[in-house]
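User: My instructor asked us to take a sequence, write out its structure as tokens, and then describe one feature of it. I'm not sure where to start. Here is the sequence I was given:
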Amino acid sequence: MTDTATAPDVQGAQKPTTKPARPFFSSGPCAKPPGWDASKLAAASLGRSHRSKIGKTRLQYCIDLMREVLGLPDTHRIGIVPGSDTGAFEMAMWTMLGARPVTALAWESFGEGWVTDAVKQLKIDPTVVRADYGQLPDLDAIDWSNDVLFTWNGTTSGVRVPNADFIPEDREGLSFADATSGVFAYDIDWAKIDVATFSWQKVLGGEGAHGVLILGPRAVERLESYTPAWPLPKVFRLVSKGKLAEGVFKGETINTPSMLAVEDAIFALEWAKGLGEGGLIARSDANAAALDAIVEARDWLGHLAADPATRSRTSVCLTVAGADEAFIKTMAGLLEKEGAAYDVAGYRDAPAGLRIWCGATVDTADIEALGPWLDWAYATAKAG
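Assistant: Let's start with the prediction itself. The structure tokens for your sequence are:
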């Protein structure tokens, strides 16, 4: 943590004397892993073709590290695809939906985005199950004869599924999990997941633009047995001559990846490997607990997700008493100007509030140091 001089703000509120050492609380791209430095990235693949021997080797190594850290079974394939998590989930929707009825769950903005695509773009007339921001729909009421789309961790609402128990082993449809702020932060039962997507920019603190697509055996079976009624752009094509394009899952990307972003992801994954998935989860849990303590001590702060069992431990969304969008913008601007916290305003489509990233790349001491700065920003915004 870094010290700053004590200075009174208007109306007598005092600025804290200590700042978070790394005030990076954005929910994506998120804080880099501790100790990250651009000079530490392996450079041999930079300026080389992704189709060169070293390019393919590094892409495959990145895939292998993701499998190892996640404990992903050999039954599931991992591919690096374009367009961040959005591109990966769109790829899954466009290539596999339409074979059977679809249920789409939406309790935050990205889930609503998948509903829009299913209804307006693919025109498949899904059953839509919604819940308000901060809530979770009745997961036990889902018809699993349908394909089911859901977000594992609602990044913009701070609400997550508690576990995979609501997904039956004998499901007829496929489970599609947008897990971008969930992987590496929760223990996911991969036997229950047919399709999962994420991006490096969340819990790993990697760079944007690249997505990761995980396919279980039932998803592969769907791809090889079903042809959608609509045309597929080149960047979505996962099948060639009726068979899965296996190269995509061996580092042969569909389009040109950034090898700099790949090396950055490898750095993060090697750091994560040193901790193990349990260590990553423990860091997120400790950060979320530290933020919980801050909230509990302040009557003007609250959690948008009221139920602790379904409250995110990564993208934690907070309510601020009496605050509207302009008030939150003022608070976030004050914190950024002081270098105390960056990018903490809630998502643009969510209710006005704060959003604090508590993923594994954040240090708990920085969460703890944030509390007094929230007090100062709140008091200053109120006085203004």
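For the description part of your assignment, you could build on this observation: The chain has a mean pLDDT of 95. Try explaining in your own words what that tells you about the chain.
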